[in-house]
Amino acid sequence: MRESLIAATPEDTEAVGARLALNLPSGSSRALQLQLHGDLGAGKTTLARGFLHALGHSGVVRSPTYTLYESYVLGAITVVHADLYRLEHPDEFEALGLRDLAGAGHVWLIEWPERAGPWLPAADVEVTLTAQAAFHRIELAAASAAGLRWLAT
């Protein structure tokens, strides 16, 4: 399943993130994963902000470029927001210890997932953001059975 959306404003991009958060599939025995692809400034962190705010986070959401990841405990769900841009080699991903946060009740939002190479588990939903002159294009693609359920709602 694929879906293509247009975001004319940052608020539109946040709304897509919120919609994804509010339609999380339940019953997964492992962490659900949303991989965010796009150039610098394409809206990856903006989408993550909408996702986190929809689940109840009221604070500021910044890209964890220097810390590499932030965890947000939001009720029964823990969201791991990672920015892998600064990884110089895929082997560095293992040192982050994210596998400890890969169980049920966890959701991973991963910016720059290609930097982790083969160490990153497969995505449930791939999100590709592309900045155009007057808008951003957001492409959503299911990459697993859970991802199909997620996008179907």
Structure description:
The structure is a single chain. With 153 residues, the protein is an alpha/beta fold. The protein has one domain (2-152): P-loop containing nucleotide triphosphate hydrolases (Rossmann fold). It contains four helices and seven strands, in the order βαβαββαβββα. It has helices at 10-22, 44-54, 92-95, 145-152, and strands at 2-7, 32-37, 69-74, 77-83, 106-111, 125-131, 136-142. It has a seven-stranded mixed beta sheet. Strand 6 (125-131) and strand 7 (136-142) form a beta hairpin. Helix 1 (10-22) crosses helix 2. It is globular and about 40 Å long. The N and C termini lie close together (12 Å). The mean pLDDT is 92.
Structure described in brief:
The protein has 153 residues and is an alpha/beta fold. It is 24% helix and 29% strand.
Please state the CA-atom Rg, rounded to the nearest Å. Answer: 14 Å
Number of domains: 1
Give me the strand/helix succession.
EHEHEEHEEEH
Look at the structure and name the CATH superfamily: P-loop containing nucleotide triphosphate hydrolases
Described by strand count, sense and barrel closure, the largest sheet is: 7 strands, mixed
Distance N to C terminus: 12 Å
- The CATH class name reads Alpha Beta
Regions with little confidence, pLDDT below 50 for 5+ residues: none
Question: Hey, roughly how much beta strand do the residues contain?
Answer: 25-35%
Count up the helices: 4
Strand order of the largest sheet: 1-7-6-2-5-4-3
Total number of beta strands: 7
